[in-house]
């Protein structure tokens, strides 16, 4: 249960990262930079791949919590599974604001509604992929 949740979190984290990277390339909004933003913790800049691995580790832990919740709540059906994924992902949506304020790198302003919209859209993708992968793994066992 927790392993499958972790794998669903990894898949969701990859989807979120690639989605926001693409949005940043297409729009110029630094939402991917914001996603990987840990520069307020470390004095020396980290390579992008290290920041991405940190992001994936967080996504795996979120996925593990998701897998645990799905099993303990005995959630059945994709829509209910997606609902649980959304509830677990919701706090990450609001990390946009403190991450924007704490960033040393150039990232979108806390008042940039377009960037916040893409950030929110990316986290909907994260929840959807997490729920979809969890469902697919359940159907194959």
TrEMBL record:
Organism whose genome encodes this protein = Metabacillus sediminis
Lineage start: Bacteria, Bacillati, Bacillota, Bacilli, Bacillales
Q: Where are the transmembrane segments?
A: 52-70, 82-103, 115-133
According to UniProt, the name of this protein is DUF1440 domain-containing protein
Which UniProt key words apply to this protein? Membrane, Transmembrane, Transmembrane helix
């Amino acid at each position: 249960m927790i392993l499958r949740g972790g794998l669903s979190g990894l898949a969701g984290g990859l989807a979120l990262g690639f989605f926001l990277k693409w949005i940043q390339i297409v729009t110029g909004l630094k939402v991917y930079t914001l996603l990987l933003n840990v520069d307020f913790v470390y004095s020396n800049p980290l390579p992008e791949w290290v920041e991405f691995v940190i992001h994936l580790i967080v996504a795996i832990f979120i996925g593990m919590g998701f897998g645990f919740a799905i099993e303990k709540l005995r959630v059945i059906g994709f829509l209910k599974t997606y609902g649980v994924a959304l509830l677990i992902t919701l706090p990450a949506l609001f990390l946009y604001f403190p991450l924007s304020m704490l960033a040393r790198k150039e990232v979108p302003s806390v008042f940039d509604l377009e960037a916040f919209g893409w950030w929110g859209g990316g986290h909907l993708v994260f929840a959807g992929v997490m729920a979809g992968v969890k469902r697919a793994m359940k159907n194959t066992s």
